[in-house]
Amino acid sequence: MNLKCLFCGVLIALYVDVAEAVNYIPENISASISLKVPGNEAEKYSLELRQWKNDPSSYLLEASESIPMTITQKTEDMDGKLRINVTLTALEDIYFNFSQQMLTGFRHDDCQFYMPGFWYRRNLRSPKEAPSFHTSDSWLVREDRLSAPLTGIYSEKEKSFVTVSRIDQFVGEALSTHREGEIILSGKTSIGFTGFENLNGTAALSFGFPYREAPKSYIRKLTLAPAVEAFQSLKKGETILLTWEIQENKADDYSDFIRHAWEYSYDTYAPVPVETSYSIADMKEVLSRFFVSSLVTDHSLTFNSGIHLRTADCQSNGQAEIGFIGRVLLNAFNAWEYGWQCGREELKENSMKVFDSYLKNGFTQAGFFKESVDFDKGHEDPVHSIRRQSEGIYAMLHFLAYEKENGRRHPEWEQKMRNMLNMLLQLQHPDGSFPRKFYDDFKIVDNSGGSTPSATLPLVMGYKYFKDKRYLASAKQTADYLEKVLISKADYFSSTLDANCEDKEASLYAATATYYLSLITKGDEHRHYADLTKKAAYFALSWYYVWDVPFAQGQMLGDIGLKTRGWGNVSVENNHIDVFVFEFASVLQWLSEEYKEPRFARFAEVISTSMRQLLPHEGHMCGIAKAGYYPEVVQHTGWDYGKNGKGYYNDIFAPGWTVASLWELLTPGRAEHFLE
Questions:
Q1: Closest Cα partner for 180 from 140, 212, 135, 144?
Q2: Which domains does the chain have, with CATH numbers?
């Protein structure tokens, strides 16, 4: 390895085997301590190394003038990784912020960057109003923004990477009265900061404690705010231990780097399933109450009201959405199947009302779904999306296959779905991609191909159901596009409809799409699609938390004991966690068997158990007004979607998709059954 860097302003003498893995030189290190007297601007002191007790792995970090604390550091080899233990002891009552910078030796311009669940490459898909290189090439963020408290820098030229990760118990959080500038915390926190900086053309890892955010903090969707630096109290004689771990390794490309980083994060933080008393049967019984309580029948379309509801009352409204956050048809199918399984006539009757109303009144003149209708405002969205249309077809093909399996046929619906699949073929571009948004006359509104993998699923299903090879050929074309534009470039973007940025759903949908193609093909084709699935799955996995973010007392999510491991961050623009998983756990289980990789199956179980935690039911309403209305915008960091902030939900949510996602999570193997 030719990484040349130092840590904590400390000259580190290492054993030979460690030196081969992590090679440090003194001139590439800086460390500092900022001390704040309330009511005054903080004073920042640079720290220098003094070898301590004639121990080559122990050092004293000293300022050029007297400061009321002692800072020592000890290093140790952890199987080729470098573990750094920094001890701070107060000589009098102080408020402090400790920070470090470590030059990697890589040219900043040669590098791509990674902060899991938040930063990919240079975040150039994101607008300048969100964290990205458009605003700055150096960013520090609080650790709870990230699905693992880690930052990585990958040199494309050197094909090498270096990461730094925080090692702690992460048990505490403190409230603050301000969100910008220098702030004094009300108590003890476990949350530090991490990030990367461009130091005179060289890429550097930066990290410290407690948290900082610079050059901007990110407080809500597309809203950057001034930098923040937190100061924690340390009483006279009190000591705090801070631990980080550094590793360096080779990677063939950015995708390989993400694989290495995820496997390291999984192994380091070792997430285990969350203990829960809710079985799958319990979950479905409570979630099924949403199917009943949310049904709206007084319009030309019958639907489960599941978008833009208030958490305070969960009152139904007149907004019907086929896919995305509404998932009307998938909820109808889930209720239909469950109604038959449990002998619940009300569910079957309600679902058939939905299906019948959409068959009669749910299609546009051209034959697309009326995918978003607001009866309260008398408005039908004239813009279609490949994602919502695809999700509607997906739901109805599941319904038709279930009915056919049970000796029932619906020829009108079959014809509608054939027509829609044929129209999808007309929309597909020669490169295999689909436009993100379009009008009923096929005129393109948004030509971005990020939503393309959502179309792969119904095309593969359509081939299986209708035995039409054109649909499979089209699905394979989408995979060609995904491979060339998204997967091979490690560039997953804009699958969601309400953001233009790097997002979880793009990689998740890409993995699911190639999973479908692997299930329907054999031999070399099967292996090729499986390899693509695996590569995309690591990116999707990188959005899911492998650690438990701490909350302060008084932050509702912490008070009810939420464990964040297994929950996924949403996108660069939307820094909250949610239960978007749908079939991804099935993909992970399948990959685990396909590649003999137990991490996949084990983490799928973490996801499955963790996402049961916020089930609203009597005596455990989780801040939601109605049982079964599973929350959506779960705000776990210093960010809000518009209301309430960390530890709470936004006041508006969309249980239409959360119920649908959890239902598929709790109904594993649907694709394998459909395509067998």
A1: 212
A2: 16-269 (2.70.98), 280-675 (1.50.10.10)
